[in-house]
Amino acid sequence: MDKIRIVGGRPLNGVIPVSGAKNAALPLMIASLLTPETLTLHNLPRLADVSLLVRILGNHGVDYMINGKKPGQTVTSGQTVRLSAEHIVDTFAPYELVAKMRASFWVLAPLLARMGHAKVSLPGGCAIGTRPVDLLLMAMEKLGAQISIEAGYVIAKAPDGLRGGHINFDKVTVGGTHMALMAASLALGHTLIENAAREPEIVDLADCLVKMGARIHGAGTSRIEIEGVAGLKGAEHHVMPDRIETGTYAMAVAMTGGDILLEGARPELLQSALDVLTQVGAHISTTNEGIRVSRNGAGLQAVDVETAPFPGFPTDLQAQFMALMTRAKGSSRITETIFENRFMHVQELARLGAKIRLDGDTAIVDGVDDLQGAPVMATDLRASVSLVIAALAAKGETTVNRVYHLDRGFEHLEAKLSACGADVTRLAQAG
Ligand code: UD1
């Protein structure tokens, strides 16, 4: 398994191109199951999760074509993938595949809507709390599906097709909203989704579904209405920029000092995080090309943060922000309200010299003057990159083990950081 070695203490200066958003790419790819025609997606990030989902969709009968790099494109340019689900050959998604990536559970919605049945393994995914699927299944039931669970598998049936319904989520769920949008687009009649997730990735999926012929109003608000159509057609769509990657590199430069242009980034996708970074002491400006983040030698201020659904501070930036706060002046309280048990990075940050106490769903971070490099272990996707951020500012050498988590969600991480002056090397290891 590969490791990443980082020698800390260098500022970041230069340009980091922002990749297509993983969390938009995955539901967009899954939406290809809704139509017998070709869905062409541009700007897909080159990530392990994207490759895995291509394989999963292939098992259901989706033909795919991936465009290579064109002359003149940099290694960080996104890829174009054409997905054609003309013949769905299988509505079964086995444990071995779904367990590797939680989002692949969402195939249940388009398979059910188009084929009238699906059998999908209960998911695995990042080890951050219990992550149940009750709300996802409730949404399908409201659209007329009969659901049973047998031996770790969800069996969903709608022999006469889905019909519109009223879905009221008692907790905001991104996956539940994605599934409801996809299924309701092909359900007979009108669907109302209340307390829908407002994340930009929901809007990206809805925009693509509308291009495919769906009739959706209100995406991006907590009340979405859908008028079902009999069939959807092919379309072409550009995946939105990754707001979590953007926020991660913004925090990295706040940590190390320097001046970075996050090319292609859109500030409205992460305004709450940018506001927090300004309070911390980073200088943030928007240009035609993206977002510019800089910090001079002045220290970091401790700021309290509470995660919340969009437009609040994203849970997917909580670990990175905690890394940043380990070197702030004073004490910061970081409260995680979305996922239980999303503090696995705390122990590893402590190995680098961070002072963090846990009090229920709150971490109290007392800033220290210096972190010290050490071997650390990546535990999940966002936790792994928080260790990278800490290591960039730590004295000496840090090795981050189990970097496959990083490969799931960060495209060309070491190339992007090295190009801006960081000392980051991947050490390939057999086995
Ligand atoms: C998505 C993102 C993930 C992000 C999360 C919250 C993708 C691929 N993943 O995950 O990166 O951290 O949104 O912004 O887009 N819940 C239930 N029952 C359910 C479903 C969810 O109780 O049936 C709970 C979850 O345990 C969690 C909360 O609802 O506490 C939010 O989860 P959800 O928004 O569904 O997260 P994901 O869609 O899995």
Shape: elongated
Distance from first to last alpha carbon: 6 Å
The major sheet is characterized as: 4 strands, mixed
Rounded mean pLDDT is: 94
* CATH hierarchy class name of the largest domain: Alpha Beta
CATH architecture of the largest domain: Alpha-beta prism
Largest sheet, order of strands side by side?
22-23-1-24
| Beta strand % | 25-35%
Q: Work out the count of structural domains.
A: 2
The third-level CATH topology of the largest domain is: UDP-n-acetylglucosamine1-carboxyvinyl-transferase, Chain
Protein architecture, described:
The chain is of the alpha/beta class and about 425 residues long. The chain folds into two domains: about 5-20 and about 240-425, Enolpyruvate transferase domain (UDP-n-acetylglucosamine1-carboxyvinyl-transferase, Chain, Alpha-beta prism), CATH 3.65.10.10; about 20-240, UDP-n-acetylglucosamine1-carboxyvinyl-transferase, Chain. The protein is about 30% helix and about 25% strand. It is built from 14 helices and 24 strands. It has helices at about 20-30, 50-60, 95-100, 110-115, 135-140, 175-185, 200-210, 245-255, 270-280, 320-325, 345-350, 380-395, 405-410, 415-420; strands at about 5, 10-15, 40-45, 65, 80-85, 90-95, 115-120, 145-150, 155, 165-170, 190-195, 215, 225, 235-240, 260-265, 285, 290-295, 305, 330-335, 355-360, 360-365, 375, 395-400, 425. The strands form six sheets. It has a four-stranded mixed beta sheet. A four-stranded mixed beta sheet has the order 2-15-17-16, covered by helices on one side. The protein starts with a strand and ends with a strand. The structure holds uridine-diphosphate-N-acetylglucosamine. The site of uridine-diphosphate-N-acetylglucosamine has 20 residues, from α1, α5 and α6.
